[in-house]
Amino acid sequence: RPVWQLASLVENIERLQVDKDRQPGDVAREQADGRLCERHREKLHYYCQDDGKLLCVMCRESREHRPHSAVLVEKAAQPHREKILNHLSTLRRDRDKIQGLQAKGEADILTALKKLQDQRQDIVAEFEQSHQFLRERERHLLDQLSKLEQELTEGREKYKTKGVAELARLALLISELEGKAQQPAAELMQVS
């Protein structure tokens, strides 16, 4: 069986050497952190399974803890470490799965956005073609209307000119007939 008291003595000597190099607050910090036994100021190597406490070699050999079941801290921590590692593995798997889903979702969204952009371009091109066709149709119809308007204007001028000439001829005839209507009856009855 290992001589823990001797090992503890060697550790104490080494610690005295290290304590010379340490700052005054380091020992207090180690005690506060729970790395040193409060009673013996030694490293805590054991875990008392009955009391659930960390023990130094001196405490482990004391009357209080000798009959208790004590194991090395590393051995006592192993099941906890394994649980943590299992949880860590599960969490990493979940993280990887979520990252995969995020990447797939991002790729799907980018694909959908690309399709939307393509559809937008198709719609713009189609409407541009329609607008071009309608502009050409509008120009053609307006040209036809302009020709009709010009023909009507020219026809109006022609009819106006003919109308004025006809009115002048009719006015002359009316004037002659009015003049004859004013003649005495005898002259009126003379046929020339």
UniProtKB/TrEMBL annotation:
Residues 32-73 form the B box-type domain. Signal peptide: none annotated. InterPro entries: TRIM/RBCC, Znf_B-box, Znf_B-box_chordata. It catalyses: S-ubiquitinyl-[E2 ubiquitin-conjugating enzyme]-L-cysteine + [acceptor protein]-L-lysine = [E2 ubiquitin-conjugating enzyme]-L-cysteine + N(6)-ubiquitinyl-[acceptor protein]-L-lysine. Its EC number is 2.3.2.27. Keywords: Coiled coil, Cytoplasm, Metal-binding, Transferase, Ubl conjugation pathway, Zinc, Zinc-finger. Residues 131-158 form a coiled coil. This is RING-type E3 ubiquitin transferase. Pathway: Protein modification; protein ubiquitination.
